[in-house]
């Protein structure tokens, strides 16, 4: 007996150690349940909604060992940028006032990072995200728990998670993948992954794709063409799929399990399918495996906490709690409304424009926090802490959590925003006014994408009207409906305004020269980003020997990163890469080379006479507005395409495309240079041949030959006898 006890003791020890392991927070389940995040680390406040810089979320999560709290709520617009999360970080989104935090317009990346607790954050990528990328990327991430978050609007998938380990997603919404793919999440090689109580909604497929070892219980998958997808690969994959509800919507399908092969080892139990779209939850038990190898036992035999409900119970819990549900934003509310229609509502979307854009997320008032330790005075007093001294990382309140964790955990529940004080209600309108003013302000300063000045003035007038309304409000009598109506009115004004954008290059100066360059590489540009390390490819006028048939090529310049590091890009000031713009009407322009005076056309050869070209808005490349250089009004599309690099290694020819396909090698940035148009030797036509040319320096001394560089005076006598003296530059 004694011997038996001795052999059991080490096992018992292991068991007790497991029991004693500290949860990330009460309610944490699955393989990521023991992440410690930024426990005990520096408390960092997010104090503004900027995309980066001091006080921003991007800055707060950029260094390891931090516990991130929010002094503001609202939309963090990171269009053209991304947020990268370091290791050992807690993001306590539930501390944000108002309607919480939404990240919009760019990617969130936690690849290769370890030990992250992320709660109550919405990540909505959108059409500005590169079309081959995802809203959230967790490649090779370890020990992460994502709780009550929303991830949506990913062009490739909403989430990319490759070769990750010990991951939990719980009570999250994975919604509305956008074009081109409209998919939920893709993985390859992830091990020890738990997904439970998540809502997968309006994704065409991959809810998720399960090329991994995964535990998937109590999820609700709604309005999909293909539900959960097998790994269908040569390698073996193991999927424990338990007590989930698959519910068809307006785009719905019977394919709740799709693309499964024998290498997928599927343990399926307690899963239900409701395909009748009748507004009632009345599904039937799923008993088929659709090509997967059926398993009698789950693959995972784990010790971490799991609170598994029936599929019907899980549906109710998801409706009540899923997403950043402390206060749901308009989109998450819409998803829940669609889900609870049980088949009547829901849709795949092309992008956020189909659902009125990001909308507003109201800020709120930050509670008083005298010592700035992240815990409000009132809460500290109620819990016997010191509101006059930083005691965030002390463990006064026990339970294995720091004081700031106790505070954050206390907020992790649904709240109703008070709807009686007028000041609270007014915040959504104030926020809409701020958005309108920002929109009008940006429109005034943006010279590449213009708005008619009447439209800008009209929007500003509507914003001041709303401000005057707020100033006149009587807190005793105003109702939420009245405020909401004013917000709707202003949002509509903003939506109308956005439709008036002039999508062509406009507002240019005829007094200065411009460079036109692409970051696109050929071949392989399909997957290339506009990276700061990619050399610019300048449109360049090669003058022919006979002066008759100038051709247009591209020449390599330096990368943005090299220029930022202080290097001078000689190509940027090479006169053959300098162009001037002149209005041609209807958004078209004449583009003339500053060195030769030849006109650009969508051909390899330049023209002696003006040819109208339309620079039509494409996307942002490296934070710059990019255009297609187009020859038509949409009916007969042709545009420049960066061709193969030739054997000189300095540049190459241009190809031509008949599609506005979303390829970076078709996109051109137009950038103003410091070079004035007037100092360039602009010949009126490439065909004029002077009979006599003399060169002088700026002091008036005649030179033997044309200088190779710098300023000089050129004295020309044309064949028709016309004399011309001009200051020139090479
Ligand atoms: Ca039904
Ligand atoms: Ca405090
Ligand atoms: Ca304190």
Question: What does this protein look like?
Answer:
The structure is a single chain. By secondary structure, this protein is of the alpha/beta class. Among the domains are: 2-225 and 312-366, Pectate Lyase C-like (3 Solenoid), CATH 2.160.20; 512-688, Trefoil (Acidic Fibroblast Growth Factor, subunit A), CATH 2.80.10.50; 689-730. The chain is 18% helix and 29% strand. The protein contains 10 helices and 44 strands. An 11-stranded parallel beta sheet has the order 1-2-5-8-11-14-17-20-23-26-29, with no helix packed on it. A 10-stranded mixed beta sheet has the order 3-6-9-12-15-18-21-24-27-28, covered by helices on one side. Strands 33-34-35-36-40-30-31-32-38 form a 9-stranded antiparallel beta sheet. A hairpin with a 2-residue loop joins strand 35 and strand 36 (624-630). The longest helix is centred in the middle third of the chain and has 24 residues, at 422-445. The N and C termini lie far apart (98 Å). It binds calcium ion (3 copies). One calcium ion binds at residues 369, 371, 373, 375, 377, 380, 387.
The chain-level structural class is alpha/beta
Q: What is the CATH topology classification name of the domain at 2-225 and 312-366?
A: Pectate Lyase C-like
By CATH, the architecture of the domain at 2-225 and 312-366 is named: 3 Solenoid
Strand order of the largest sheet: 1-2-5-8-11-14-17-20-23-26-29
Secondary structure tally: strands: 44
The geometry reads as globular
Kindly provide the name of the CATH class of the domain at 2-225 and 312-366: Mainly Beta
Helix content: 10-25%
Low-confidence residue ranges = 1-19, 682-688
Q: Summarize the biggest pleated sheet.
A: 11 strands, parallel
* pLDDT averaged residue by residue: 88
Radius of gyration from the alpha-carbon trace, in angstroms: 31 Å
Bound molecules: calcium ion
Strand content: 25-35%
Count of runs of 4 or more consecutive helical residues: 10
The CA-CA distance between the termini, in Å, is 98 Å
